[in-house]
Amino acid sequence: MRAENSATTRASIAVPAPPHTSGTHAGPSGDLRDAGRPDPRAGTLMAALGVVAFSLTFPATAWGLEGFGPWSLVAVRSVLAAVVAGGCLLALRVPPPGRRHWAGLAVVAAGVVLGFPMLTTLALETSTTAHAAVVVGLLPLTTALFSALRVGTRPSRTFWAAASAGAAVVIAFTVQQSGGALSSADAYLFGALLICAAGYTEGGRLARVMPGWQVIGWALVLCLPLTVPVAAIALSYEPVELTAHSVTGLLWVAVGSQFLGLVVWYRGMAAIGIPKASQLQLAQPLLTLVWSVLLLGEQLTPAAPLTAAAVLVCIAVTQRARG
Fold first, then answer.
1. Do residues 262 and 220 make contact, with C-beta atoms less than 8 angstroms apart?
2. pTM for this predicted structure
3. What is the predicted pLDDT for the residue at 30?
4. How does pLDDT run across 42-82, given as a tens digit for each residue?
5. How far apart are CA 139 and CA 77, in angstroms?
6. What pLDDT is recorded for position 34?
7. SS (H, E, C) 12-29
8. Residue 103 CB partners (closer than 8 Å, separation 6+)
9. Which of 17, 256, 270, 310 is most open to solvent, judged by the fewest CB atoms within 10 Å of its CB?
10. CB within 8 Å of 131: residues ≥ 6 apart
11. What value, to the nearest 5°, has the Cα angle with vertex 237 and ends 235 and 243?
């Protein structure tokens, strides 16, 4: 959340603010969007901050699984994130979204609030974070494909070539890191890939008509009737051990990944477009592997710096290509 700047004041003088309508905007107290045309540089920064937040998700989930069962971890993280988001919505007196937006919010909820966290958490019970990074290696290209189908974006051939090359590099690296063997967790990982891409695409579309933090905020609140009873049931059946790692992991995936990361991510997507923002995630698997070394003690091969350089080149090309 940020304080309103002088651009907001100038916009209100030039164009009178329309009356509140069915939640497409929240007015001075709740609308956290920049006035006027989005700044591409600021949008790129916001999307990049989201990628950094997401890169910590798998290591934090591994920490959380040290003290929580998979169902407990996912349900409790969603409830905690919804409490934070709901508190912000109440404090700023944000009106509920219009009825036409609830279907899109349901897709966001199914994809990024429930589906992706649950499937990847189940996968991480038997998979290393390095192997799970295959998912986020494929996610940028899959999100761009979903965007082309859902939003009608038509990136250039250069964009698609660079995106495909970057995805291929990331896949090759992460598969090599995992020893080249497919695990039983692959079904969870690829399912998570598809459902998350749908959630990202729909969230990016909605972030054009309402602030990004409200998109994820309302999606989290929408899930409360499901996540609260699931959390209560899961906590009663799955053992819980509160340690520094498990509590830190839970708090990060709840507040950092599930709410704050998605706030800046959706703002970035709205500013620079879904395809270009999604390609910034090509750096996410490599960041995840760095955190895995620092936080989990996993080992990296000397190929990591070369892969990082190749991925950064692909990102630079996609950001310059028209999309």
1. no
2. 0.77
3. 41
4. 889 999 999 999 999 999 999 999 999 999 999 999 999 99
5. 22
6. 39
7. HHHCCCCCCCCCCCCHHH
8. none
9. 17
10. 174, 177, 178, 183, 185, 189
11. 50
